[in-house]
C-alpha cells in the first residue's frame, strides 16, 4: 500500500517567510504601543490608525503563518495558538505593563526559533538519514478525529523499523498526517528516513516507494 502523507517539499521561502511572520506579528502592535499612532493608554478610545494597524497586522501575520505552515515539515498546535493569541497579546496587553511589552514579542520570537529548529532538523534528516522500512504493528484510534485542511487526519502508529544498514529491527512510534481514506492498516509497510545519531527520530520518506 502506498500511503500519501501531508508532507510538503522543502521550500527556500520558508526561513524568509518565518522572519516576515515575526515582523508582522510584532511590529504593528509595538508601533501603536510605543506611540506611533499617538498617545495610547488603558483609558484611550481605540480607533483610526491604531485599529487599522492592529486588525491589518493580525490578518497579515495570520496569512503569512498559514503559508508558513503549508511549507513546514512539522506541525504543532501550540504554534497556531501563538499566531492567533500571541499577536493579540502584543496588541492589547503590552500597553498595560512594560514587562509584557518585552515578554509578548519575545514569546513570538522564541516560537519562531522553535519552528526554525524543527524545520532544520527535518532538512538535516533528509540529507543524512538512513533508509528504512516501517511495518505498521498498531494504529491508535484517537478520542476525537481532527480533520486538517479538509483532507488530512492525524494518527499515531506503532512501527517495527527495519533499517537498510543491517541494524537490528526495533519498535518506535510515529505521529503523522494522512489523507482521508488512506490511513495505514496493520501490516502495511512505510518507507522511512532514520536519523543515524538517534534511531527514534525518523520521518516518512517521500522520495521512494514502500520497500
Total of domains: 2
If helices are DSSP runs of H or I spanning 4 or more residues, what is the number of helices?
4
Main sheet characteristics = 6 strands, antiparallel
Cα separation of the termini: 10 Å
Structural class: alpha+beta
The 3D shape can be described as: elongated
Rounded Rg? 21 Å
Low-confidence stretches are 1-9
Number of beta-strand segments: 6
Report the average pLDDT across residues.
80
* Quaternary: single chain
The helix/strand order is: HHHHEEEEEE
Helical residues, percent: 40-55%
Sheet-strand content, in percent, reads 15-25%
Name the features:
elongated; 4 helices; single chain; 211 residues; alpha+beta
Element layout with pairings:
Layout: H1 14-33, H2 48-71, H3 77-92, H4 98-128, E1 130-140, E2 147-148, E3 152-163, E4 170-179, E5 189-195, E6 198-204
Antiparallel strand pairs: 1-3, 1-5, 2-3, 3-4, 5-6
